């Protein structure tokens, strides 16, 4: 028998637009509409048909918002119709974003199968003559917010005795107080399934190493979602033999590149810009070589790479030159073959050479700021209040939909310390500016005391 071939689709968020696109997109021969989730969905459908998939399974958050349902719904329905025509089964579980949109599509297209509708676990067998049979077990969000683990109501007898059982779920893994179906890794292991393919968090796990974890978003939508994005190709040869491989077919990709500032050519503004731009081009070229070798850029993969440039080290220049570096407007896109690279912005790497503890003993403005940063680093009471305010501010930004972030922002989902790191970075940048200013003032004071010892 041949193995079962299933395409798993993580968070699509049809209707969202990728952010930080370059102004001169059209001059590069690119269109915003061909870089977003609808395009990666179209590519997924074509690929499933070309490679002869037996099923396509969506893990929730397919449609981003209810009011996007016309445009996004059309793209979804078109793809489902193409797959169904090709004899491919299309199944989905509902995520927290599409509690009404997805059931509506399922009601309109008879062949589109919702798994676990209304928050009740459901098993479906994929059976076809000459193909290894597979059981899918899934659960759908009954409403936008669910604060208890769906695994609590999983009936163990849904696991098949004679074939591989694959779990499909949209959930918040190891985030116990989450309102998005919090699930513990241990609960997944206890179910005894052959694989768990999950939606919700946009950073994919290495499912090729072990097929339990997040599929990741289908397309990066901002600089907080770096790395390859796309669906997963899963082959099931027997129980316990589930092989997953990532298909990085998203047309846009976000990356961070590193750029050293040591030895930056002194001179006027144009000289500094030229030297800096040359260094960035070298860094982007190295990135391009790496991505091209892996087949992650070019036709059918990323056409645009939006890069954040992280600078390291101290240029031997004054503050004005630093301002030139962080004024990204002079940075034009670079193209290597048919792949375009734009600079999203320039950020500073953390400064391990700043001795915060020593600076915190100073009785001036940099000393005051350094004391606050030490508190933030060590987690004192004042820092906790600051973190709560920052979290509320970020939530307000994301709730307004002005930024294409996740339903829960990346800093919250991936690493709890990320918000501290974010604030520390901003604080250190500020501190460096203050130190440069006070050094300049001290220099002036010195020169005013000519002849003094
Ligand atoms: Mn979600």
Strand arrangement within the widest β-sheet reads 4-3-2-1-12-13
Helix content: 25-40%
Structural class: alpha/beta
State mean pLDDT (0 to 100 scale): 87
Distance between the termini: 91 Å
Number of strands: 17
Helix and strand string, N-terminal first? EHEHEHEEEEEEHEEEEEHEHEEHHHHH
Question: How many helices does DSSP assign?
Answer: 11
Major sheet size, sense and barrel closure:
6 strands, mixed
Give the distinct bound molecules. manganese (II) ion
User: What is the 3D shape?
Assistant: globular
Q: Which class of the largest domain in CATH terms?
A: Alpha Beta
- Gross CATH architecture of the largest domain: 4-Layer Sandwich
Q: Specify the oligomeric state.
A: single chain
CATH superfamily of the largest domain: Metallo-dependent phosphatases
When the domains are counted, the total is: 3
Unreliable stretches (pLDDT < 50, length at least 5) are 400-415, 444-453
Kindly report the CATH topology of the largest domain: Purple Acid Phosphatase, chain A, domain 2
Query: What percent strand?
Result: 15-25%
The Cα radius of gyration reads 25 Å
